[in-house]
């Protein structure tokens, strides 16, 4: 079985795992939930089409959770982007706009969208 849950608050979480109303030997499962935030910096308002663009991402993700940046075009196409960790712990994001218009940037940690 695969079970997923999203904690509603930060801090230690205790998950009781039951089967037929009886606790399994691995129960309770404990984990520590932390709020993650991201800040996109140095993203220009006007970017030429077909010209590589770079912006910085400052993140509170100091764990081994997979980080991902999703850049969407105005017509809903997901664009290729490259996420490179800098020595200061921030990230450099490289991407190429293919069309004119407002693009969106989403930051994901562990597959979950992060506020910021």
The shape is: elongated
Low-confidence stretches: none
Estimated share of beta-strand residues: 35-45%
Kindly state the mean pLDDT as a whole number? 81
Structural class: mainly beta
As a percent range, the share of helical residues equals: under 10%
| Biggest pleated-sheet summary | 4 strands, antiparallel
How far is the first residue's CA from the last residue's CA? Answer: 33 Å
**Order of helical and strand elements:** EEEEEEEEEEEE
Number of helices: 0
Radius of gyration: 19 Å
- Find the count of extended strands (DSSP E, 2+ residues): 12
Please provide a written account of the structure.
There is one protein chain. With 116 residues, the chain is mainly beta. The chain is built from no helices and twelve strands. The chain has strands at residues 11-15, 18-19, 22-23, 29-33, 38-41, 53-59, 67-72, 78-79, 81-85, 91-95, 104-109, 112-113. It has a four-stranded antiparallel beta sheet, with no helix packed on it. A four-stranded antiparallel beta sheet has the order 8-7-11-12, with no helix packed on it. Strand 2 (18-19) and strand 3 form a beta hairpin. It is elongated and about 60 Å long. The two termini are 33 Å apart. The relative contact order is 0.22. The mean pLDDT is 81.
């Amino acid at each position: 079985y695969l079970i997923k849950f999203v904690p509603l608050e930060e801090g230690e979480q205790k998950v009781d795992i039951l089967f037929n109303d009886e606790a399994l030997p691995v129960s309770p499962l404990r984990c520590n939930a932390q709020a993650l935030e991201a800040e996109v910096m140095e993203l220009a308002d006007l970017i030429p089409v077909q010209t590589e663009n770079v912006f910085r991402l400052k993140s509170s993700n100091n764990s081994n959770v997979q980080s991902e940046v999703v850049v969407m075009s105005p017509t809903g196409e997901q664009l290729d982007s490259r996420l490179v960790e800098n020595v200061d712990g921030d990230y450099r994001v490289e991407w190429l706009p293919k069309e004119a218009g407002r693009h969106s940037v989403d930051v994901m940690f562990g597959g979950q969208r992060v506020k910021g």
